[in-house]
Amino acid sequence: MREIALHLMDIAENSVAAGSRNIHMDVLEDLRSDLLKVSVRDDGRGMDAETAKRVLDPFYTTRTTRKVGLGIPLLKLAAESAGGGLTLETESGKGTRIEASFLHSHIDRMPLGDVGMTMLTLLVSYPHIHWVFRYQVTQKDGAVKEFELDDKEIKSVLGDMSLTEPDVLKILRGMIEEGIEALMPQLEY
Amino acid sequence: MPAVKSLEELKRVREEALAKKQLKATPGNVQVIVAMGTCGIAAGARDTMKSILSFIETEHLSGISVTQTGCMGMCEQEPIVQVIVGDQAKVVYGKVNAEVAAQIMKQHVQNGTPVKVYVLPL
Questions:
Q1: Which chain B residue shows the shortest CA-CA distance from A175?
Q2: Residue B17 lies in a domain
Q3: B41–A63 C-beta distance less than 8 A
Q4: Structure pTM?
Q5: B119 Cβ under 8 Å from any chain A Cβ
Q6: Complex confidence, ipTM
């Protein structure tokens, strides 16, 4: 996988498969502390201590269609290769939180990638899930900017209308693109 | 929190749809399902999805349901996309990159003819 944003999507798929109703996805870029942290938190079925240990093992998976589960081990490797690490908190019946951290400036840090497309894809493909996306950037001078997308209001406005209707898609895409664009430092010429 | 402007636009879109009576309780009669297991994502399934969504947006295709599924056990064929049109049998496509996805959307979803070369023999 070539982007942290793709790993995020992959981890979120596990949350969906765990029967979650609410999924929170956070991206925190802190240029002041040279840190990049991403996390996915869900209220799905969680894991017992035994399973939680095994999930970091590539030869463990809950799936029956193939015998390896590479998602979490791959993210762990990506984080550790960039001066960071992966933490997993989980409780059976309560949910799971996975966080990966990276040294922002590490030469081997994978690019963050297209976070917006990851958000849009998850949002429209799993309309029954309540998504909360948060992307926060702290600049070197300490200025903090944040984009949060909680889909609750969007869904209450749309009612039973599909999120993949073309006009709806256009607005959602614009909302996410503008929100992320506003986080980026304005270039001065 | 979503921008108020965007929420108002969404409200307007919904009202327009209601006025046209396009609103259905069950979304659409065409289903497009993209496999998004670790294998699918690593093979480029998000770009496939992006291509499908942007086709819907630019061609203004209404009533298409786009969803995801996990690994189907054919990782070597990823990205895999399934298309179900109305009551017809499901068609499963393999190695669907962004260009192939656009071709499937145009030829199969829009015009009803499956793109045979990418259909997986099941």
A1: B6
A2: no
A3: no
A4: 0.90
A5: no
A6: 0.86
